[in-house]
Amino acid sequence: MDARRLCCLALPLLLVACGAGEQSQPGNPSAGARLSASGAPAPQHAAAPGPAISFSGYLSQYTVAPATGGFLVTDILSGATQLVPADSRLRFADTALALDLSGNAGQAYRLYQAAFKRKPDLAGLGYHIGTMDNGAPLNTVAASFVTSQEFMSLYGAPNSAAFVTLLYANVLGRAPDAAGLAYHVGNLDGTGPLGVRLSQAEVLAQFSDSPENIALLANAVRNGIEYLPFGSSLPANAMAEYAGQYDVTVRGADQGAIGITIQPDGTMALFGHLVNQDAGGSGTLQPGGRFSVALPTTAGQSVTLTGSLNLAAGVLAGSWVNTSTGQAGVFSWTKPVQPALKFPQVQAIIIQRCVPCHSARPTVPGFNPAPLGIRFDTEAEIRARSTQIFTSTVQSQFMPWANMTGMTQAERDLLAAWFAAGMPP
Length: 425
Fold this sequence. Notes:
This protein has about 425 residues and is an alpha+beta fold. The protein contains 13 helices and 15 strands. Keywords: Signal.
């Protein structure tokens, strides 16, 4: 076949959109797909990711939104802002956010959606972003998806026409148009004008990176793509560690407050005042201290709170949206700052609960001076016996004997905190 005839055959194909197979027309979201020399739409080679920028808090402590010149990152707690480049990779204390929406991260995210008809899991997405960052092309990643058990369970073993029809339904959410169906079936069967035979993985990649699919998923990724970098994981705190009462302050389209109670099994109860209405409901804390709970309001609306609890930093933060009205804002709670422990606080407990028995002049009837040679009359004597105090009052709680002087659990906790702080003066 001479070059002149090849060009004549290729021309009609250049007018076929890769996602839809329709004629290229102004306003058609499928228009403008770039075709390779073979006549098959070729996914663009993604550019390398931009700079890696780190933030000390969990992702939920920040809002990330498109802005002139990149993306604006705002700290919910302090209000501090930082403008980052549009292709950045952001690292947080618990997870990561990719902003290269047209790059490797965007391609990997869309391929997940196309292959499995679901939002990507964070660890799997991170793995495949990493392989693409290391040079793997989109078709190679697509091939690994096509051979997975999940893909085979979803698509089965259909003929070419049935496979393409499933791609239209699962990826683009619609039935195929006649031209698009014929185009992709021809590519799969090698019966197209150029006799090109493409694999299911190559056709899947065409659909995932088509202009139509990019447009369909644009809103889902407009504020970045969350993922777990390969080898990392969410915080692994036991669920019981999150148990407690958290009084959350709400800001944004409305001011309010929400009380969040977390049980040791992760069960959550949320009640308070939000968007000028009372709201309340329940949910379940997820691994990593994450949650997303929809709260019905007294006005028949629904408010969804999405956030996480950072135990290490003592921060609970996130965003809320009234799905009925579109109002939105943020919420936060920070662990109250405990005043620094001082020895006089500890000595006051010892004097009240231990010195009545262990002293040169005990006040409890029947006790001789300094029983067993132990007394706590001075700071030096208390520090010299610090190990015994810790084991008997904090660990075993064996002392005071029969708790005859009434040492409270709060006092034992204060002693434990003083020991944990290194017994400061």
